[in-house]
UniProtKB/TrEMBL annotation, chain B:
KW Cell membrane (keyword) present: no
The name this protein goes by in its record: Urea ABC transporter substrate-binding protein
Keyword Calcium appears in the UniProt entry: no
Alphabetical keyword list: Signal
Gene3D superfamilies documented for this protein: 3.40.50.2300
Pfam families assigned: Peripla_BP_5
Signal sequence region: 1-20
InterPro entries in the record: ABC_urea-bd_UrtA, Peripla_BP_I
Source organism of this protein record: Micromonospora parva
Length: 395, 414
């Protein structure tokens, strides 16, 4: 992999550029830097992490990376598109349940039923809507297409009617609440609050085996990198610029002859698809999907990760999501009684002093190194100015 | 102009990623591999045990009291010389009222801390989330809360009541009191829904009418509609499986609708001494509960337990059924380990059958087959002082029957 990427000397090895809406088209140098960043990310995820982390920690990292996938999607919808979506848990859940349903049916064997159905549902046969999920050819595409279809349906209604800002946020959150109530109410066929647990196999591989857990990790890491590549292409395309334009001045874009509703719809649907994929991969990594993972609180936690990382950048959401999840584990292990306060403090500090998120730290450091512009006003205002350039005030 | 710039470079990067992924996945294993139990670390002069309770989130208020009771038992055992000559070193983790977090922390306790046993969990959902973790690693969990039954994991010891030790006796008591009809009110999650299925089967077999069944979302405080329905149903009694805060709102509404314990008693299965305190005795006086232990349960073992608990945590702290079950769990584990002569999980399991402990609730016996314990069922009445006094008990410990196999009316349930 080293053959591909002779990193230019002026830009030290670093995980890709912050990629915040470059005013000029990315030149050759920028492209090289991106490739170097990807190679670096791949090396980190595929070589370094498996070597230094124990099986248990690697499994945790797999979980964090799933959250990071949702964050990448939120970065597109919220960071680039200005749609504060507080209901990504719904799409995460649709993907997760689709995958878990298939794996449960595969565990039960042909003609079998998941264990909980007999216990809680007293069903004699599999409910009709479960049946297609027995086939991987239905279930796997469904993990992505189902969330995208729901997002498309909701988005078409909402964006055409020019619902935005806080109203959109509330609507997306209501969807998360509704989905949780539905799942809990249908305990006999959905597992209720317990969700779908005790998933043993993953397409013939025994998930209890650490080697196969490792394989799941590699699939997740690879998927995340692929999603990042896709996102980079998206935000550097003309569509990506149009999306930012809609975010910054929807009416203006409309008067220029574009349809802002369609532009937003694409971003929302893509974000939903990513959340669905994340949910699907979360299931073999963690072995559980339940309403507690997809309701209002987890949906907000997804957004917090993105905010901490820097919503308008390519890598910010990923870094933020992983950092928040990692901090949660690390703090709660060290201070089981008081970690929630420390976590809250961390959010306050980031929001107050780094409004551009963790990603702006990188931009900040780079500016200092290169000295491209005379920055004499101290690092705090610089960070803020940077943030103001890449971010818009919430709609 | 191309819509997507820099395609070639990206393609190169993706190839690298794909290649890396493929080499990494090269080592596939056969399916039978798996499931290598992590043995506990007992090399030193201490033995670690895991404490897995929610210290934050909605369940913290209940689960912290369980943690306190476990700590009390650990201290008692250490003061008496430990287990097999080793002092117990507790390792606490916060389940944070979040089920996947419970699974994560269980895995951490087993594989990183290498504990000999884990004590904790409260909700069914958290137990279901950690169950595969314990089964995969062949590690032990002691689960201290009454639950909905229909489960029997080889790596879990259930020290709380299963349905035939709590709900069925509660129904028997109502029937003996002449109740011909009941109304079911519960929180919307697995325990109430499953409990109500059992109650309905019982009612059908015993000529009792179920006049209604309503669920409120966990944490809901809006009970106007439900209480109105309960009132107009004219049921002889209400069977209440509401959890947590919802009880406060429900009983306030119940009282203000003019319903009383004398006219329409409510049997609750999730209200213990701790909850009575927070709901307020003015709303609860005279109502019934079904448990296996009350702070007022007579006996020297309980006097000692209550005194020790109050001495450690404060005179105003009540003791309750889940706390007692958690406390009993630690002592039972000690007895099993000592009988087995080792901390090895399989040896502890096979030594478990017939282990008895003179618990605060009375004598309990471990049933090695179901890994539940035989417990005395007790119906209590909430008094004005906030304590619960027993009005009926089963006379002797009831053998656990998690799948209700010995009850003909329950044949369709499992």
């Amino acid at each position: 992999m080293t053959a591909v990427t002779p990193a230019p000397p002026s830009t030290a090895v670093a995980p890709a550029p912050a990629g915040a809406a470059p005013p000029n088209p990315p030149g050759r140098r920028s492209r090289l830097r991106t490739a170097a960043g990807f190679a670096f990310g791949a090396a980190l995820l595929f070589a370094v992490a498996p070597l230094v982390l124990s099986d248990f920690r690697l499994a945790l990292l797999a979980k964090y990376l799933c959250v990071a996938m949702v964050a990448v999607g939120i970065g597109i919808a919220w960071g680039r598109g200005g749609m504060l979506t507080l209901g990504q848990g719904v799409f995460f859940g649709l993907g997760g349940y689709a995958m878990a349903m298939h794996l449960k049916l595969a565990d039960a064997g042909p003609g079998g039923m998941p264990d909980f159905m007999q216990l809680y549902g007293q069903l004699d046969e599999l409910p009709l809507w479960w049946r297609p999920f027995a086939s991987p050819w239905f279930a796997l595409p469904a993990t992505v297409l189902l969330p995208m279809a729901v997002a498309f349906g909701l988005g078409s209604l909402v964006f055409r009617r020019r619902v935005r800002g806080a109203y959109f946020a509330i609507l997306s959150q209501a969807l998360a609440a509704a989905m949780v109530i539905l799942l809990i109410g249908q305990q006999g066929t959905t597992g209720g609050t317990n969700g779908l647990t005790d998933i043993k196999g993953f397409f013939g591989y025994d998930l209890d085996d650490p080697v196969n857990q490792r394989m799941v990790y590699f699939i997740i890491a690879g998927t995340l990198l692929a999603l990042l590549a896709l996102t980079r292409q998206l935000i550097h395309s003309r569509y990506g610029e149009l999306l930012v334009a809609v975010r910054d001045g929807e009416e203006r874009v409309r008067f220029l002859g574009y349809d802002p509703a369609s532009v937003k719809l694409v971003a929302y649907v893509v974000a939903a698809g990513m959340a669905g994929l994340a949910g699907a991969l979360f299931v073999p990594a963690v072995g559980i999907i339940s309403p507690a993972l997809i309701g209002i609180v987890p949906s907000i936690e997804f957004v917090i990760g993105v905010a901490v990382g820097g919503r308008a950048t390519l890598l910010g959401p990923v870094l933020g999501a992983v950092a928040v999840a990692w901090a949660r584990t690390a703090l709660s292990e060290r201070f089981p009684g008081t970690w929630t306060y420390l976590q809250g403090l961390l959010f306050v500090v980031v929001v107050a002093f780094l409004p551009g998120g963790l990603a702006s730290l990188w931009a900040l450091a780079r500016r200092r190194d290169v000295g491209a512009r005379p920055v004499r006003r101290g690092w705090l205002p610089a960070a803020r100015r940077r943030a103001e350039r890449t971010e818009v005030p919430a709609a | 102009m191309s819509l997507f710039r820099g395609r070639r470079i990206l393609a190169g990067a993706m190839t690298v990623v794909a290649a890396a992924a493929m080499t990494a996945c090269g080592s596939k294993t056969t399916d039978e591999g798996g499931a290598t139990g992590v043995s506990a670390d007992v090399s030193g002069d201490t033995v670690k045990v895991g404490l897995l309770n929610s210290l934050s989130g909605t369940m913290a208020i209940s689960e912290v009291t369980v943690r306190d009771a476990i700590m009390l038992a650990v201290e008692e055992i250490n003061a008496a010389g430990g287990v097999l000559g080793k002092k117990i070193q507790p390792v606490g983790e916060d389940g944070a009222s979040d089920w996947p977090t419970f699974a994560e922390k269980a895995e951490k306790l087993i594989s990183e801390d290498r504990v000999a046993a884990v004590f904790g969990c409260w909700t069914s959902a958290s137990r279901k989330a950690v169950k595969p973790v314990f089964e995969k690693n062949k590690a032990l969990l002691f689960y201290p809360v009454q639950y909905e039954g229909l489960e029997q994991s080889p790596y879990i010891f259930y020290t709380g009541a299963t349905t035939n030790q709590q709900i069925v006796p509660g129904l028997d008591y109502l029937k003996a009191q002449g109740a011909k009809s009941v109304y079911l009110v519960g929180s919307d999650y697995v325990f109430p829904r499953t409990a109500n299925k059992i109650i309905k089967a019982y009612a059908t077999a015993n000529g009792m009418a179920v006049l209604g069944e309503d669920y409120a979302p966990l944490g809901s405080t809006e009970f106007g509609t439900i209480v109105n329905k309960v009132k107009s149903s004219g049921a002889d009694a209400v069977f209440n499986t509401l959890n947590g805060d919802s009880n406060v709102a429900f009983f306030k509404e119940y009282k203000s609708a003019g319903l009383t314990a004398a006219a329409m008693p409510v049997v609750s299965v999730s209200i213990a001494e701790e909850e009575v305190k927070s709901i307020g005795t003015q709303y609860l006086e005279g109502q019934l509960t079904a448990w296996n232990y009350y702070q007022t349960t007579p006996g020297a073992a309980n006097s000692k337990f209550v005194a020790a608990y109050k001495a450690k945590y404060g005179a105003d702290k009540p003791t309750s059924d889940p706390m007692e079950a958690a406390y009993v769990g630690v002592h039972l584990w000690k007895a099993m380990v000592e009988k087995a002569g080792a901390f090895d999980v399989e040896k502890v399991r096979s030594a478990s059958d017939g282990i008895t402990f003179d618990a605060p609730e009375g004598l309990v016996t471990v049933d090695g087959k179901t890994q539940h314990i035989a417990k005395t069922a007790r119906i209590g009445k909430i008094g004005a002082d906030g304590l619960i006094t027993e009005v009926w008990n089963s006379g002797k410990p009831v053998a656990p029957d998690p799948y209700l196999k010995t009850y003909p009316w329950a044949s369709g349930l499992s």
